[in-house]
Specification:
The complex is a heterodimer of chains A (251) and B (356). In chain A, helix 2 (41-51) runs parallel beside helix 3 and helix 3 runs antiparallel to helix 6. The termini of chain A are far apart. In chain A, 32% of the residues lie in helices and 32% in strands. Chain A has eight helices and 15 strands. Chain A has two domains: 4-135, Rossmann fold (3-Layer(aba) Sandwich), CATH 3.40.50.2300; 157-250, OB fold (Dihydrolipoamide Acetyltransferase, E2P) (Beta Barrel), CATH 2.40.50. In chain A, the strands form four sheets. A five-stranded parallel β-sheet of chain A has the order 2-1-3-4-5, sandwiched between helices. In chain A, strand 14 and strand 15 (231-236) form a beta hairpin. Chain A has helices spanning 13-26, 41-51, 67-74, 91-100, 111-121, 129-135, 184-190, 239-250; strands at residues 4-9, 32-38, 55-59, 82-87, 104-106, 142-147, 150-155, 159-164, 169-173, 177-180, 195-199, 202-205, 209-214, 224-228, 231-236. By secondary structure, chain B is of the alpha+beta class. Chain B has helices at 38-59, 65-97, 100-118, 121-124, 131-159, 161-171, 177-191, 195-213, 222-240, 265-276, 314-329, and strands at residues 220-221, 244-250, 258-259, 283-292, 295-303, 334-340, 343-351. In chain B, helix 1 runs antiparallel to helix 2 (65-97) and helix 9 (222-240) packs parallel to helix 10. Chain B starts with 37 loop residues before the first helix and ends in a 5-residue tail after the last strand. The chains are: A alpha/beta (251), B alpha+beta (356). Chain A binds chain B through residues 11-15, 17-18, 21, 40, 61, 63-64, 88-91, 94-95, 97-98, 101-109, 113-114, 116-117, 120, 138, 141, and chain B through 1-5, 7-9, 11-12, 176-178, 180-182, 184-186, 188-190, 192-193, 238-241, 277-280, 307, 310.
Chain lengths: 251, 356
């Protein structure tokens, strides 16, 4: 078996070098190679795309994107690395880890604990989306899509609307479209403050809704559609969502 | 700690959130009131006479009788009160050295003795008295004294400065565990490569915690608070490197001013936790202190990250400092916060005082 390839993702440089030292201490009993290190989630995804590691050691508190969100984005890959979370003090996360049997290390990390985590991680199942969602209930900053073996990030703030298709959800930004393998209702729940449902199959960014208009000017019975800032596409409003949307427009 | 095999550490009590439970009121030493205090004397006079009026009302069948009844009672009561107060005034220094139980027994003895001694006085002015009446008076005197003792006891508890002090102690700022563990981790990373810096860092850490754990109820010199913050910041610098930039704007006139200890440090810690750590780019923490006539003005600003407002603890730390300022300076202290563009600013004004 090839030695395990490991990446370290932590925003603090001393923490990364400490982790390297500890990994070196474990090398005798757990042969491995450090494939690289990154200071935040975005660089981390790049690192994973280029090095294809077997294991990622991930700090939870990082600027830009939490370690948990980073791990969520890894899961869209075909062969995501195993993950072990590292945290200094995070009562909430630690309880959640215990509950869901997710591997974690507490800083300062002991070599013996690290070694145990390394050995365990080799055959461990990857944490599921629901588990990671529980670990970090805050909405993600990005949607993630696997494209040619790497993770592409779509900032949630750039999304104009999302539409449920047969098996996928189409995410529309001003520039282009992406396909997500998620359910629209889960997205609605996670981002209740950001998107509003206007139809059974459609969520629209709240901040971009400018108003509504009749779908057809001549037909008084025709339904309504939403006017979205900077988007010419007409999205129909279903009768069921009409009341909720009217409240939003009034406010 | 690894995975499921290890137990989660017990939830750590955040002491800054708790009521000052650690200091129970039972721990307050009970003490008699100071019989040489004008407030105490007038309270006793008012209370005893109010009791006399009450008894007069109860013992009268009709309203016009009340006045006569009160005069009758006063004839016994006022000499008794005056004599008892004189004796207690004289005995006050001695009583204050005795344990509460013994002193209280002495007060009862004085009151009963004086009651008995002054009982014959009205007879000199032709008021009829009987021995049965004497026993009734002794009973009234004992009951009145017991009520007064109970009242002073309650009052002492309600107003005791010890309580305010206990609250201060409970409000003492505490350093986030997050900081401690991250710093220890950073120091560990230095031990093999840069032992000298590791030594300095541990010394800084020790000094910081010595201050946090010391008795922090008295005011401290602002210059000391500044050097404490510098030690704290050098530890954070170790961990955050170039991401943390600090600018001090210190008016030398501010240095001797007296401030509550741990006034600045929790604010600086907040600035880093909410302003620097969530930022992808380097951020600036600016600390300014100046003397403004008879006030000391402290201003602190850091980058503002609206998306990180869910990080808990900011309002709590601020509420804590606000309450401590109030306990130290009452209404003379002010703490304002605002968001100015992309920066979060804290502005504190306290009276400028120096130690005598």
């Amino acid at each position: 078996m090839n030695p395990a390839r490991i990446v370290i993702v932590d925003d603090e440089q001393p923490a990364r070098s400490r982790m390297r030292e500890l990994l070196a201490d474990c090398a005798g009993e757990f042969p491995h190679a450090v494939a690289g290190e990154a200071a935040n989630g975005i660089d981390g995804l790049e690192l994973v795309a280029t090095t294809h590691p077997d294991l990622a050691l991930i700090d939870i508190h990082m600027p830009g994107m939490s370690g948990i969100e980073f791990a969520r984005h890894l899961q869209v890959l075909e062969r995501p690395p195993a993950v072990v979370f590292v945290t200094a003090h995070d009562q909430y996360a630690v309880q959640a880890f215990e509950l869901d049997a997710v591997d974690y290390l507490l800083k300062p990390v002991r070599a013996a604990r690290l070694l145990a985590a390394l050995k365990k991680s080799a055959g461990a199942a990857r944490p599921g989306r629901e588990v990671l969602e529980r670990l970090d209930p805050n909405p993600r900053r990005y949607f993630s899509v696997a494209e040619r073996g790497r993770v592409s990030l779509v900032p949630v703030a750039d999304v104009v609307f999302l539409k449920a298709e047969l098996k996928y959800v189409t995410v529309r930004t001003r520039e282009r479209e992406y396909l997500l393998e998620e359910s629209l209702s889960q997205i609605e729940k996670e981002f209740a403050d950001t998107f509003v449902r206007i139809h059974r199959n459609c969520l629209v960014a709240r901040s971009l809704i400018r108003g509504v208009e009749r779908a057809s000017e001549n037909d008084a019975d025709a339904g309504w559609s939403v006017i979205i800032e900077g988007c010419s596409e007409k999205l129909p409003v279903s009768r069921r969502q009409w009341t909720a949307l009217k409240e939003l427009l009034k406010a | 700690m690894v995975g499921t095999a290890a137990r989660a550490p017990p939830p750590e009590p955040d002491l800054s959130e708790q009521k000052p439970r650690s200091i129970r009121q039972n721990d307050l030493p009970d003490a008699l009131p100071d019989f040489r205090n004008l407030g105490v004397i007038s309270r006793i006079l008012v209370f005893a006479n109010a009791l006399a009026i009450f008894v007069a009302i109860v013992r009268s069948q009709r309203l016009p009788e009340v006045g006569n009844r009160f005069v009758e009672i006063a004839g016994f009561l006022e000499p008794l009160l005056l004599a008892a107060l004189v004796v207690l005034y004289a005995a006050a220094p001695l009583l204050s050295t005795w344990p509460y139980g013994k002193a209280l027994a002495a007060v009862f003895a004085v009151v009963l003795a004086v009651t008995a001694a002054t009982f014959p006085l009205p007879a000199l002015f032709g008021v009829e008295t009987s021995s049965a009446q004497l026993f009734a008076h002794l009973a009234y005197a004992a009951a009145g004294t017991a009520l007064l003792a109970w009242y002073f006891h309650l009052r002492q508890r309600a107003l005791s400065p010890v309580l305010a002090e206990a609250r201060l102690q409970a409000l003492q700022a505490r350093i986030r565990p997050h900081f401690l563990f991250n710093s220890l981790n950073a120091v560990l990373s230095l031990i093999r490569t840069d032992p000298k810096r590791a030594e300095t860092a541990i010394e800084d850490l020790a000094e910081l915690f010595r201050t946090v754990m010391s008795d922090n109820r008295r005011l401290t010199v602002f210059a000391d608070e500044v050097s404490l913050c510098r030690q704290y910041l050098s530890l954070e610098q170790l961990r955050l490197g170039e991401r943390l930039r600090v600018e001090w704007l210190l008016d030398p006139a501010a240095e001797p001013a007296l401030v509550p200890p741990m006034l600045l440090q929790p604010l600086v810690e907040n600035a880093i936790y909410h302003g620097i750590e969530p930022g992808m780019e380097a951020g600036l923490v600016q600390i300014r202190a100046e003397r403004n006539g008879d006030r000391l003005r402290l201003q602190l600003s850091n980058p503002y990250h609206p998306e990180h407002q869910h990080r808990q603890g900011n309002r709590m730390a601020l509420a804590n400092i606000r309450e401590r300022l109030q306990l130290h300076f009452d209404v003379e202290a002010r703490l304002d916060t605002r968001i100015a563009g992309e920066r979060y600013e804290i502005d504190i004004m306290i009276p400028y005082r120096v130690s005598a």
